[in-house]
Structures are given as structure tokens and as C-alpha cells.
Design a protein that fits this description.
Blueprint: H1 4-7, H2 11-27, H3 35-42, H4 46-52, H5 56-81, H6 86-98, H7 104-112, H8 116-123, H9 132-141, H10 152-175, H11 180-196
Length: 203
């Protein structure tokens, strides 16, 4: 978490530092990133950086969590757009992630160097203990009438399955340098398999 000194920075200085951090974490993964590059780009003393963040990991997860909040908001917008249809929403939501131009290199480094902590941050798109109200709001937008679920526990597990499939497809897109068209086609196949079921009716 950023320190109070960072939160209280004037917006211009705050944005300058955010741009510098995002530039470095887009250039290389977290553990190869250099605080020296960040402070040089932001034109601040090294001591100032440590007044704002504990270390580079602290800075990275601040950026990641802010991005996850933005992605979660997009998920909510798309749910409303498609009247709570989970699978139609997920197709466009996946497109949004892989076509995100501004943060594509940051996302690529995060996904290709996934740790449990990074995965936990991304899981907050669907499950966030820190904002239960927002989560309940998102869940309330889902049209569950056409889903083969019996209760909220089933819904939770369904969302976990959808999240896992989505996460793996994003990693595969970046790792194999798939085109956006090929990555989307693969994702649609898996979402349709999940939507339609894996067992033939009557079998």
C-alpha cells in the first residue's frame, strides 16, 4: 500500500511518479525492475521514493491493484450492457483485456511472471474481500435464470472456473504471442464448451 505521503502528493507529481513506475514495470518484470530507473524517470531523489512506498514490490502492487479496480469496473459496465448475460459479457471482457493498449506491456509482464500474490490481485475482479459491497453489486447484475446453479455457492464456483479459464487464456495469448483474433477464437471455444456443457444430453 502506498504511504500517506504519496496519497497526499499533488496530482501532477503523483501522476509523474505513476507514469515512471508504469514505464519501468512495462519494460521488465517486477523482480528485474530498477528503482534507480523509476526515480530517474520521475526526477525525484531515492529517499523520496521510500517516503511513498516501502519498496518496488509495494509500488508494483499499487499499480496492479489500481488496474484491477479499473478492469473490475469495466466488467460491471459490460454486465449491464448485456443485461447480466455472463458468457456474452466474458467474451467482450476478454477482448478488452488482450486489446488494452495503454497497459498491454505492464499486463504482459504481470501475466508471464505470475506469482500467487499477482494471481490473488487479479482474482479480485470477481472476488474482493475489501469491497464486498461492490462484489454484491456485480453479482446482483448477473442474470442467473439461465445458469445451471442452485445457490450462491454454485455461483461462486462458476465464477472461479470462468476466472481460471480467462486467466489461462490471457497467459497463453502473451506466452505464445498469439494474434488477438486467434486468442479470441480459442477463448470463445472454451467459453462455449463451458456454456453448453461437456456431456451430451441423454448420455
Amino acid at each position: 500500500m502506498p504511504k500517506v505521503t504519496f496519497i497526499n502528493l499533488p496530482d501532477e507529481k503523483k501522476q509523474t511518479l505513476i507514469v515512471a513506475m508504469k514505464k519501468e514495470f512495462s519494460r521488465v518484470p517486477l523482480y528485474d525492475a530498477s528503482i534507480s530507473n523509476i526515480i530517474k524517470s520521475a526526477n525525484i531523489p531515492r529517499g523520496s521514493f521510500y517516503q511513498y512506498f516501502d519498496d518496488k514490490e509495494d509500488a508494483f502492487f499499487f499499480l496492479l491493484n489500481e488496474l484491477v479496480k479499473s478492469i473490475r469496473n469495466k466488467f460491471g459496465v459490460l454486465l449491464e450492457k448485456y443485461n447480466g448475460d455472463l458468457f456474452t459479457t466474458m467474451i467482450e471482457f476478454y477482448q478488452h483485456i488482450i486489446m488494452e493498449e495503454e497497459d498491454v506491456h505492464f499486463l504482459k509482464n504481470a501475466f508471464l511472471n505470475m506469482t500467487y500474490k499477482i494471481e490473488l490481485s487479479f482474482s479480485k475482479i470477481f472476488k474482493d474481500q475489501e469491497s464486498n459491497g461492490r462484489l454484491l453489486e456485480l453479482v446482483s447484475l448477473l442474470n442467473t435464470s439461465n445458469l445451471n446453479i442452485a445457490n450462491h455457492k454454485d455461483l461462486f464456483h462458476l465464477l472461479q472456473i470462468v476466472f481460471t479459464i480467462t486467466l489461462r487464456n490471457v497467459v497463453e495469448k502473451f506466452a505464445n504471442e498469439l494474434s488477438q483474433e486467434e486468442a479470441l477464437a480459442n477463448y470463445k471455444i472454451e467459453m462455449n464448451l463451458l456454456k453448453n456443457g461437456l456431456v451430451r444430453k441423454g448420455s
